[in-house]
Amino acid sequence: MADLSEDRIALAEKVDPDLLHMLAQMPRRQQRQVLLLLMVVENLLYELLRERRIKEDLE
After folding, report:
1. Spatial separation of the C-alpha atoms in residues 52 and 34, rounded to whole Å
2. What is the tens place of the pLDDT at every residue in 6-54?
3. How far apart are CA 27 and CA 34, in angstroms?
4. Which residues lie closer than 8 Å to 23 by C-beta, 6 or more apart?
5. CA distance 5 to 17
6. DSSP string of 19-50?
7. Which of the 8 DSSP states describes residue 15?
């Protein structure tokens, strides 16, 4: 789990400041929608990586 936290920190450091500014200007409802979408994408990527690791372990 430490790797996942380190990955998140590394990703957060790469976020474009202009993107954060644009997000801050959005209404709260849109901010929540963007965050929800990002969480869904993160979960999908995590599941894909998990499946790949399982397949590699089986080989």
Report:
1. 27
2. 777 777 778 788 888 888 899 999 999 998 998 999 899 999 999 999 9
3. 11
4. 31, 34
5. 21
6. HHHHHHHS-HHHHHHHHHHHHHHHHHHHHHHH
7. S
Residues in the chain: 59
2 band by pLDDT with thresholds 50, 70 and 90: low
Specify whether the CB–CB gap between 46 and 54 falls below 8 A. no
Nearest to 15 by CA among 45, 37, 38, 40: 38
7 secondary structure, DSSP code: H
One-letter amino acid of 26: M
Question: Given this model, what pLDDT does residue 21 score?
Answer: 86
